Amino acid sequence: MDPHAELIEEIEQVVLATARWTRRARLAPRVIQALHAVRREAYVPPARRMEAYANHPLPIGHGQTISQPFIVALMTDLLDLHPDHMVLEIGTGSGYQTAVLAALVRQVYSIEVIPELSARAGQALAGEHVGNVALRVGNGSPGWPEHAPYDGIIVTAAAATVPPALIGQLRPGGRMIIPLGLPHDRQMLTLVSKDAGGAMARRDMLPVAFVPFT
Hints:
Helix content: 25-40%
Number of domains: 1
C-alpha cells in the first residue's frame, strides 16, 4: 500500500477510535474521496516532503503548522458539505485544508493573516490546478462579508470565543467548526450550528491543540 492510502486508512481507524466523543464512527465517502484526491506533499515545505503522509502536524514557518491529517478530515466531515456549498476558511496556512474543502464544494473563500503563507498557499493551489478558491490576506475575525452567507465556516486556529461576525455570516442551516480555548491551555474542537430560524447551538467534539487565532 502506498503512503497516501496508508494514511487515509489510519485516519479512518482514528475516526472510529474517537467516535465516543465525536459521534462520527466513519467519514463520509465524499470526504474520503477528497483526501485521496489532494496530494498533501504539495502543501508541505520541501524539507518535510518525506513526512507528508505521517499523521501529525508539520511546521510551515512563521510559527504555524499544517494540521494533523486526522484533524483536517474530522473538521471537514463535521461540516456536512454538499457540492453546491460555499465555505469560508479562517487560516489558509499551507493551503492543504483549503484544497480538501475545494474538492467538496462550489467555492472556498480563505483568509490568512500572514502574507507569506497566503502567497505560498496560492502558489501550491495553482500548481495543483485548484481553481475554486479565493484568497485574502488579513484578520479573520471580521470574516469576508462580501460573499456571505456561508454554508460552512472552518476556523483553523484557537480562539477564546466565537467571533460574532462569523456567526452573522453563517447561513441558517449552516455549520461552523472552530477550536475554542486559550493558547497552551485546554482547547475544545467545537461544532456551532445555526438552525433554519437562526437559533445557535454548540457541541463540544474533541480536545485539541491549535496555534492561537491572530
